[in-house]
Design brief:
globular; Rossmann fold; six-stranded parallel sheet; 17 strands; nine-stranded mixed sheet; binds alpha-D-glucopyranose; binds adenosine-5'-diphosphate; 16 helices; 2 domains; 35% helix
Length: 467
């Protein structure tokens, strides 16, 4: 079974968020199950492209409206990952030191056209094309309707929605940039008067998946305008929970950690990482350490963080460390709290992969007050590292974290509100102070298996179910 994943991100090549982690892990696990899974993504100007040597496996010229754009499909000279990976190189357009920008319509349209042109040239075509998010949302439409790609019309295409908030909208005046198609089918591209690549994918893909079962259900009620479409197409939609790459995310072998540990050495191991964090960020290691790691955006409930920290730190014996970047107001509010709570609070504004790993390891609790969370990987990483997640009951968080009050192992609340989160922090402190139960729970959560094994198989079963 040959599977081709098409994505804007893939760890460790280029990562903005969880999409990269998924596309960097799922093919590996699919290969472990006997499939031949590969990835094609844009070639960016980043540390990965600087560190490796590449060879060209295909060259061509693509037509984007009235532009003729040369492109190449590259591979690394030596195999670097546990799956084949191909890169679409388009000078100036894709080859930039960022993944996303304000010019994404042209960038990702050119990427998708290059991918389709390249597939046309392959002797061994993929048996399944697996597209991820709106950046690849026009591929199912092009395979179905663009005259150039009619020969690919029999390859089943699966679209996974990692995040339905972003849909890749653009105006009808740009339709001429899509390779020529039967104009009578233009309605497949349109949703509410605008070209909507994610909606087009939902209409044209053979199957549509979301990254957790609960998110699939939630989308039918709230999907940034796509609710009724998802309800109408529900027969081909299914939620499959993400897994984690338990080889990358393993506290016993994780090279980023200050001190590695396993279940039997958990106490000392976590403490080693916590002490390092507390030293680096001037925090009190004797208090329970709460962390937040993530994009500082509304979906993550990030704008509540300054008020949550302000309230929670007022009269509680806790330490808080925030890692993230995004909304500028939230960033500056988080920074301005530092002098108020010196010794108990700190924030690192930016993206730091290594620091994130040490935080999953060294923290006692991970905060995820998400407003929307299609799956969420952080809570699964934190479980694997023996850190108790505090989550809002939504999307994938609802599917992966059970409250201690219900015989579970985490702390859950219902609302995106400062008071709900602060109440959860109070429950967390009580739990932390019940040392025996707390330590037992840490060992318990480290054992929960969220690796990709089960879900990689679920995707393979889904492909096989398509006739
Ligand atoms: P999303 O994709 O919506 O951002 P996920 O929970 O699926 O959320 O995945 C987020 C991923 O990005 C995790 O691997 C998390 O550790 C990582 N991450 C997010 N923000 C940062 C940051 N500022 N520094 C390092 N890693 C980060
Ligand atoms: C998106 C979602 C996140 C999910 C990730 C990987 O970025 O916001 O919840 O875990 O994709 O599927």
């Amino acid at each position: 079974m040959r599977i081709l994943h098409v994505s804007a991100e893939c760890y460790p090549v280029a990562k903005v968020g969880g999409l990269a982690d998924v596309v960097g892990a799922l093919p590996k696990y699919q290969n472990g199950l006997g499939a031949k899974s590969a990835v094609i993504m844009p070639f960016y100007n980043n540390s990965f492209s600087k560190k490796h040597n590449f060879k060209s496996t295909h060259e061509g010229i693509l037509i984007l409206g009235n532009q003729r754009i040369p492109y190449q499909v590259l591979q690394t000279e030596q195999a670097v990952l546990e799956f084949d990976i191909y890169f679409v190189h388009i000078e100036h357009l894709l080859y930039q030191d960022y993944v996303y920008s304000s010019n994404d319509m042209d960038r990702f349209l050119a990427f998708q056209i290059a991918v389709m042109n390249w597939i046309l040239t392959l002797d061994k075509k993929p048996d399944y094309i697996h597209c991820h998010d709106h950046h690849t949302g026009l591929i199912p439409f092009m395979a179905q309707e663009s005259y150039n790609y009619q020969s690919l019309n029999n390859i089943p295409i699966i679209t996974t929605i990692h995040n339905a908030q972003y849909q890749g909208w653009f105006g009808h005046e740009n339709l001429y940039k899509i390779p020529e198609f039967n104009i009578k089918q233009v309605g497949l591209l349109d949703w509410k008067g605008i070209v909507n690549p994610l909606a087009a994918a939902i209409k044209c893909a053979w199957r549509v998946t979301t990254v957790s079962p609960s998110y699939m259900e939630e989308l039918k009620l709230r999907a940034n305008g796509l609710e009724s479409l998802l309800r109408a197409e529900s027969g081909k939609c299914v939620g499959i929970l993400n897994g984690i790459d338990s080889k990358v995310w393993n506290p016993e072998t994780d090279d980023y950690l200050i001190k590695n540990y396993k279940k039997s050495t958990l106490q000392a191991g976590k403490l080693g990482n916590k002490k390092w964090l507390c030293q680096q960020f001037d925090l009190d290691a004797s208090k329970p350490l709460f962390v937040f790691i993530g994009r500082l955006v509304g979906e993550k409930g990030a704008e509540l963080l300054p008020a949550i920290c302000y309230e929670a730190l007022k009269n509680r014996q806790i330490s808080v460390l925030v890692l993230g970047s995004g909304d500028k107001t939230t960033e500056s509010q988080l920074m301005s709290l530092i002098p108020h709570y010196k010794g108990n609070y700190n924030a690192f504004i930016g993206y730091d992969e290594r620091l994130s790993h040490i935080m999953y390891a060294g923290a006692d609790f991970l905060l995820m007050p998400s407003r929307v969370e299609p799956c969420g990987l952080n809570q699964m990483y934190s479980l694997r590292y023996g850190t108790v997640p505090i989550v809002r009951r939504i999307g994938g968080l609802k599917d992966t974290v059970i409250d201690i009050g219900d015989g579970g192992f985490g702390i859950c609340h219902n609302q995106v509100s400062v008071s709900d989160v602060v109440y959860s922090i109070d429950r967390a402190v009580d739990f932390y102070n019940n040392t025996t139960a707390f330590r037992k729970n840490r060992k318990r959560i480290m054992e929960i298996d969220h690796s990709w094994n089960v879900s990689a198989q679920a995707y393979i079963n889904l492909y096989k179910s398509i006739n």
